[in-house]
Amino acid sequence: MSNPTLLEESPDNRFILHVDMDSFYASAEVQRNPALADKPVIVGADPRDGKGRGVVVACNYVARDYGVRSGMPISRAWALCPGAVYVRPDFDYYDSLSAKVMGIVRRFADKFEQVSIDEAFLDVSDQVKTPAAALSLVERLRHELKEKTGLACSVGIAENKSAAKIATDINKPDRVTLIPRGRAKEFLSPLPIGRITGVGRKTELLLQSLGITTIGDLQKGDEVKLGRRLGKAARWLVQVANGVEREEIREQPSRSLSTERTLEEDTTDWEVIERMVGAMAEELASRATHARLSFKSVGIKIRFRGFETHTRETRLVASTQDKGVIRREALLLLSRFSSGKKKVRLVGVRISGLRMMSTKQASIENWLG
Questions:
Q1: What is the mean pLDDT of residues 338-344?
Q2: What dotted CATH number matches 256-368?
Q3: Domains of the chain by residue range
Q4: How far is CA 340 from CA 12, 267, 335, 337, in A?
Q5: What is the pLDDT of residue 306?
Q6: Residue 293: C-alpha distances to residues 201, 289, 297, 329, 359 (Å)
Q7: From 327's CA, which of 1, 138, 307, 333 has a CA 20 to 30 Å away?
């Protein structure tokens, strides 16, 4: 277990943790089959000797050393790393393991917000009052996760969510980074502007044209001038850069399930996007089936270069668990954007209107499917 990055102690902190499981899907496969340890593992479509269709759903850090990234066409992953172990995704297994992981993580929180299958924010301010106490709590959490699941995680500790996430992202895998109260601005200042979540390549280039290349440059930026170019996003960006963002940790009720993928390279290749949607539909259907939930609505999220983000949703005639319905409706919603020439950076799928099915209903639904 590596030593955490600790700047200095400061009492009376607001302690927000960002817990991110390291290469979760691929690590889950290694945990299930320890023989895969230290080998490049790619979760996704069948490569079929480099001619397969589909995308990389996830990969471990060994595979990343070869240049493989999630969202990449599987044929490109094969070209980069033909000797990798290619595994078809098993979303039932991942969802079951995620439930175990989040059950452990939740017990350490005063307030808990799960934001994806492998990522959560915790507010622990009521139970810890110093950085040393926060680090002690995090090490207990990491030890319990490792002991009970065999999985490693990275953790960022700060006084707000955005800084905690940045701290996690710059020190992965299997690391802990703490930013004490009042030091977020100093900590963030030398980092490139692209480290802020949501700053894509186009926004990065726009900011660079204004002489802003680091978060420190943004700290000194003119918010009014930025607002003319970035709209409402400018105020949030300035708050994040200065370490004063104060979004609360909110328990997410089980009214919806969602997943999203950020492409390694922005693209207008709708075949790639459609394959990603198919993988996400399978994931969501598996999670709904595992939790015995049906859904009544399907939605999509699409983000183009920069901050231009759109969401669309359609309501179904009847509740279902059918992954084919998710895929069909999501693709129909996406088709409204496919005629444009803008490059896509992120795509997500969401199901909502969830309701619990009886064991008998779930069995019938699965049989019919």
A1: 81
A2: 3.30.1490.100
A3: 28-90, 189-246, 256-368
A4: 51, 12, 10, 6
A5: 63
A6: 38, 6, 12, 18, 10
A7: 307
